[in-house]
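Ticket #4471: structure export looks truncated?
Reporter: QA, pipeline team
Priority: medium

Steps to reproduce: submit the single chain below to the structure queue and open the exported record.
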Amino acid sequence: MTRFKRALEPSIHLARLTLRAFTDADEDRLFQSVRNSSAELMPFLPWCHPQYARKDAKTWIRFAQATWRDQTQFAFLIEASATGALIGGVGLDSPDANGDANLGYWIRTDCTGYGYATEAARGLAAEGLQRLELNRVLITLSVNNFASRQVAIKTGAQFLRKTTGGLTLHGVKHDALVFALTQPNIHLTV
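Actual output as written to the record:
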């Protein structure tokens, strides 16, 4: 398993948002946010399902903490800087020997439409490119995930390719779109 070359800080401050590493104290807020948004999240996120329970939130937090320690993934909560309200999640994972890593994001249903996903994705991609010295940050999404596609475009990511059956969600293969963020097409100041 490939690891990131270095670690990120556990807290990243953006214009309106704070990206923060998960702690055990986040279990209930994570559970409530996912449950309240599961209808919208489930089609596009393999870990989201109708029976999502507190134990799933606890398992995810433990996994996120373990992968942070071994530098194979950096998963963050997205919080509103002004209030601390949980807005969603964003992370970098799957680093490879070529200097690429995958970027994923999700936003609570009642927080969509405010540009939070774009701000969080752009901010974390900039950290990955700058601090982790990645060559590219890839965003892979279902061809049916129009909201995520719009976020990728708004971050400044460039479309790379469409892959047939390139994404498996809930045991079903989906065609996927792959976008890439690189140093020249992202603002490193967030």
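Status: closed, not a bug. The export was complete when the record was re-opened. Leaving a note from the reviewer for reference: Residues 54-69 form the longest helix (16 residues).
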